[in-house]
Amino acid sequence: MPGHSERLDSKLALAVTDRQLMESAAENIHALLAGAPSDLYLRAVDELVDGSEWSELNDRFYKTLAFGTGGLRGRTIGKNCHRRRTRQRAPRGATRISVRRNKCDEFL
User: Fold this and answer.
1) Per-residue pLDDT at 44 exceeds 90
2) What letter would DSSP give residue 2?
3) Do residues 86 and 47 lie in contact, with contact meaning Cβ atoms separated by under 8 Å?
4) Long-range contacts of 89-94 (CB under 8 A, 24+ apart)
5) Which of the two residues, 99 and 8, has the higher pLDDT score?
6) What are the extents of the domains in the chain?
7) Angle at 56 between CA 1 and CA 39, to 5 degrees
8) pTM
9) For residues 21 and 69, is the Cβ–Cβ distance under 8 A?
10) 80-106: average pLDDT
11) Sign (positive or negative) of CA dihedral 82, 87, 42, 14
């Protein structure tokens, strides 16, 4: 969907210019869509953009989740939401922190 993606990019850029969308949110949206395993992410973001849901997009994408927050939120698409990838990364991060604190380098 190259044409579709270009249209979305231009809408996001205009929203940033008009100060409706945070620049960090636009960057995080692009990062999510670049690594999206299916078009579900594109369709979900596009629906919010078409509805001019800028505050919702800002809330979902203004930052990535900090480690340890759990991110247990109702939304499933966004950088500021709990996703399968977050659930997979959290135990690895906790293990690395524990190993470093206990100076067990052979486990890294």
Assistant:
1) yes
2) H
3) no
4) 93/67
5) 8
6) 2-107
7) 20
8) 0.61
9) no
10) 62
11) positive
Cβ contacts of residue 9 below 8 Å, gap of 6+? 30
- Which tokens hold the place of 34? 């670049």
Longest Cα–Cα distance in the chain: 52
Residue 60 to residue 55: CA distance in whole angstroms: 9
DSSP string, 36-86: -SSTHHHHHHHHHHHTT-HHHHHHHHSSPPPTTS----S--SSTTS--HHH
Cβ neighbours of residue 93 closer than 8 Å, sequence gap 6 or more: 67
Given a contact cutoff of 8 angstroms between Cβ atoms, the answer to whether 93 and 100 are in contact is no
